[in-house]
Hints:
about 250 residues; alpha/beta; Rossmann fold; 7-stranded parallel beta sheet; 8 helices; 7 strands
Amino acid sequence: MTVEGKRVLITGSTSGIGRAAAELFLAGGATVAINGRDAKRVAATIGELGTDRLVAAPGDVGTVAGCEAVVAAARSGLVGLDCLVNNVGMSSPATTLAVTEALWDELMNVNLRSAMFCTKAALPALRESRGSIIMVSSAAALAAGPSASLLHSVSKAGLIGMARTMALEVAQDQVRVNCVCPGYTATPLANRQFGPMDETVAKVTPLARLGTVREVASAIVYFASDGAGYCTGAHLVIDGGCHAGASWGTQG
């Protein structure tokens, strides 16, 4: 399994799963474009990672223009592109009657629209390199969870549908499209929104713990590697066994 020499753009890579993926790609010899809304934070992340195999691609991928600008910056800095990781995401807990048009638009723009239009912008370069696309979906896309995860579930299920359909469309170009589906994972975003989840997760997850960002990142790097060369249209669940029990937290 190798990613040496690959040129990779990871959206939302200044923290959490995206940053862990950047670290693993770098360890494997890849060159990585770091993305985040805040250019100063992108620059700080690059400084902390401490290698010259990094490119800054700041920008808001919640808009079409932002997607195009981020991909253009990555392609220019990397001199091409071998892998796009559509990782950026957000979660706004809300039940059906609490969903507003503004909330719907914000979450779908970040979680789903960004993947569509970053992929569209990146596809010409990925066709040239016979590269790959990885969507960071969620276990929530596959099994019902807490009712307040409605918008998260809808948007992440859309990513799986997008990946499967795109995989068939671009297979003739030898471009692969796959998904990873994390369950409860210890990320800064999860900690800010939900606080410590260890006790709750222990009750609903067969492995009785949170996943780590590195465990999810390992799956991302696998899908990008030459070892996954015959893998497309697939999804890999990394959720401590929740999906095996057809649950994503409904027992808690």
